[in-house]
Specification:
Organism: Linnemannia hyalina
Shape: globular
Protein name: Dienelactone hydrolase domain-containing protein
Helix content: 25-40%
Distance between the termini: 39 Å
Number of domains: 1
CATH architecture: 3-Layer(aba) Sandwich
InterPro entries: AB_hydrolase_fold, Dienelactn_hydro
Number of helices: 7
Number of strands: 8
Largest sheet: 5 strands, mixed
GO molecular function: hydrolase activity
CATH topology: Rossmann fold
Length: about 260
């Protein structure tokens, strides 16, 4: 299972700016004896929750803007971005060295070793206490794989998962998913249509979604995104709209069953 080449070579944007709409708070549940923070954004009266998994650069102005805008889309969501990398994102000097990038992900982004599921579930519990009754996952790059792993678990509380510029996604890594998915690949990712086609044979109440952004590079909604660039900003807003519409549809389908 290989990482998208652009993920190893493309550094984060350093001149990005955004005034956060949300706030950082501490998760109620400790993870392996450690307190973790989360970035909470969106209308506090929404009953629709989203847990977000950032890319390997951790919190970043473009990443926060992306999640703020999803939280405000399609009627609003309470969106929580928990701290998956307590030591911070990947060191900038690792970019361009694939072995170092993969080594860092193996050390700090391993699904089991780094308690990814437990962090996501802690965020769910706090969203539940805040009044949310449905939950979905959105990730970026590495975070999309983590989201897929979470919705492959038996008894997952999440109704859907996905995100832009996904890494490590294949027929094999998605074979056990229990929910519909949404993938928004850039020009740098492999063809994911066969993955979506197979997921849509599972008979979920909402069809999975795939839209390719062939004019965008890997990471354009996260740490590698420069939304002062008009073309990237336009594509970013389109991604926000697609994701918000999908998660709203999933939540509505769940409400109709209650």
């Amino acid at each position: 299972m290989s990482l998208v080449a652009a993920c190893c070579n493309t550094p984060a944007v350093e001149n990005a700016h955004w005034h956060d709409k949300g706030e950082f708070v501490t998760l109620s549940t400790e993870i392996a004896g450690q307190k973790r923070k989360t970035y909470l954004t969106g209308p506090k009266d929404s009953k629709r929750g989203i847990v977000a998994i950032y890319d390997i650069f951790s919190y970043h102005p473009t990443t926060n803007q992306f999640f703020d805008r999803i939280a405000e889309s399609h009627g609003g969501f309470q969106l929580s971005v928990p701290e998956f990398f307590p030591e911070g994102g990947i060191p900038p000097e690792y970019m361009g060295e694939g072995s170092k990038v993969m080594g860092w992900i193996g050390q700090y982004g391993d699904y089991q070793k780094n308690h990814i599921l437990q962090v996501a579930l802690a965020a769910v519990e706090d969203l539940r206490k805040a009044g949310c009754t449905s939950f979905s996952l959105v990730g970026q790059c590495w975070g999309v794989l983590m989201a897929v792993k979470i919705v492959s678990e038996e008894g997952t509380p999440f109704l859907s998962a996905g995100g832009p510029h996904p890494s490590f996604i294949s027929l094999e890594t998605t074979k056990d998913v229990k929910t519909p998915l949404i993938f928004l690949p850039s020009k740098d990712e492999a063809d994911l249509v066969p993955v979506i086609e197979r997921i849509n044979t599972k008979g979920f109440p909402v069809e999975s979604v795939h839209q390719r952004f062939d004019n965008m590079h890997h990471g354009w909604t996260g740490g590698r995104g420069d939304w002062t660039n008009a073309e990237q900003f336009k594509a970013g807003l389109e991604a926000v709209d697609l994701l918000g519409a999908f998660y709203a549809k999933v939540a509505a389908a769940n409400d109709s069953k209650l």
